[in-house]
Inverse folding.
């Protein structure tokens, strides 16, 4: 499975909160105040919520935002075929907190994986952001296809470190479970977003495209991205 890209959703949570400012650039701004943005990226390895997807991935995405509402799509090459994701929702502020509610669909060509569809909700206040996903997938041989994913992210800038520490937990049937912990660093060099993620999953995590070798392991991901 995306999110993103630095979409993807604890990272997607941050991206959603950045939409009103990130899209305020003059890149294809509509007269009514809407804005569209595009992004391309590369990941040395593709992990999503602690589950290995592909040894590397090149991605492309497009996002549209107007008045807090957003729609977007994100595509990436995986080991066999393509992942194509679609998402939308509404970002807003209330009671001193930034929040969003929306949906995401993850789809694949060449039978790489099941298709997943989920409802997403996130809230951020100060250095803490919480993201929650409640979804289902089309497992033809599985009776219970429901799952949840909850992550809590802490911005370490409050202690002088330009990094984000995130803990995530899968809740669902026997094929979707486990915990993952990541430490993310990001910067921009000459307009190019550069990222590094160090992660650790546990022995209960769902086996990814590498099978048993991607469980109970430490992983590192280097990424490049450019938005226009």
């Amino acid at each position: 499975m995306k999110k993103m890209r630095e979409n993807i959703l604890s990272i997607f949570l941050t991206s959603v909160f950045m939409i009103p400012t990130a899209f305020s650039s003059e890149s294809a701004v509509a007269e009514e105040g809407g804005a569209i943005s595009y992004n391309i990226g590369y990941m040395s390895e593709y992990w999503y919520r602690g589950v290995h997807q592909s040894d590397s991935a090149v991605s492309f995405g497009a996002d549209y935002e107007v008045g807090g509402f957003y729609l977007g799509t994100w595509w990436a090459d995986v080991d066999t075929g393509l992942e194509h994701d679609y998402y939308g929702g509404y970002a807003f502020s209330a009671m001193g907190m930034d929040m969003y509610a929306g949906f995401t669909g993850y789809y694949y060509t060449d039978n790489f994986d099941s298709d997943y569809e989920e409802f997403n909700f996130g809230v951020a206040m100060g250095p803490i952001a919480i993201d929650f996903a409640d979804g289902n997938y089309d497992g033809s041989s599985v009776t219970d296809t429901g799952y949840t994913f909850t992550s809590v992210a802490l911005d370490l800038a409050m202690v002088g470190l330009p990094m984000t520490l995130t803990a995530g937990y899968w809740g669902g049937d026997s094929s979707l479970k486990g915990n993952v912990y990541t430490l993310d660093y990001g910067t921009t060099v000459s307009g190019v977003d550069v990222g590094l993620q160090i992660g650790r999953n546990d022995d209960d995590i769902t086996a990814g495209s590498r099978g048993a070798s991607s469980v109970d392991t430490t992983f590192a991901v280097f990424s490049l991205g450019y938005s226009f």
In short: The chain is about 5% helix and 60% strand.
